[in-house]
Amino acid sequence: MLADLHTHTNTSHGHHSAAEMYEGAAAAGLDLFGLSEHSPLPEEYACKLYVAAFPGNFRQFVQDVQALRQRELEREDRPLPLLGVELDWLPDYPRHMCRFLSCWPFSYVIGSLHYVGLFPVARPNTWTDGREAAYARYREYYEEMARMAASGLVNVASHPDFIKRASYDLFHAWLREEGSLDVVAGAVQAMADNGVIMEVSSAGLRQPFAEPYPCPAIMRLAADFGVDVCLASDAHDKADVGAGLADVARYARSFGFRFDTLPLRPDDIATRPAVLAQALDYLDGPLPRLRFSL
Description:
GO cellular component, one term: cytoplasm
Mean pLDDT: 95
EC number: 3.1.3.15
Oligomer: single chain
Radius of gyration: 18 Å
Enzyme class: hydrolase
Strand content: 15-25%
Pathway: Amino-acid biosynthesis; L-histidine biosynthesis; L-histidine from 5-phospho-alpha-D-ribose 1-diphosphate: step 8/9
Low-confidence stretches: none
Protein name: Histidinol-phosphatase
Number of helices: 9
């Protein structure tokens, strides 16, 4: 069973439409394909990468995915489309997040931290304020990740060390500092306590540092705390849909993980009985999950 539930379209800053990304999923041989566009941001958090029309285009994105799902629903030889979202965790805007999520029929919600305060953690050439400020930012990042995991709003914590993207060496230096892994462990413990799945993303393999998200130290913590994991590509291009999933599957298995755990209910994939039959177990509740062999 092959699934990729974290992908993006040209609604925000991807390169292709939902239909084109879907064809990428078909070419990759996926069984389940989730389109999980970014949530629109408040004005204070404007992302320079997003197309100008993004907030207003979100409705069209939802309609496009729903049309895809309707078209492909009964075609068992094709990937099953699913509507998800990548929610930006913005602790100063709880009403914004809750109101947004209440507006759309998402099958699952991926939670992400792209900002610490107003600081865009992945923007190049922004980590110029010194080691002390950077270390404080890493700490705040994981403290917020713990709060996100405990919020009840998200099913998945995505790319859990995305903050390393523009500060890789500095981030790993911080991880080696006394007490840093304890801070990260607080976030991982919150995932375990609240049934939030941790994403293992191949997107890091496409960066110059060629390391999955998250790094080995965080994978070991997740294994120790018994956190479930799911695999994803975070593709923004149709050529990257499903890319690297075999690599991150091997990576996850090397830490003892045995399941690819998807934030879905059986009803979400009922028209794919052959896929559903491969599910090893199902946990119901506010944060549902289906486990498949990794």
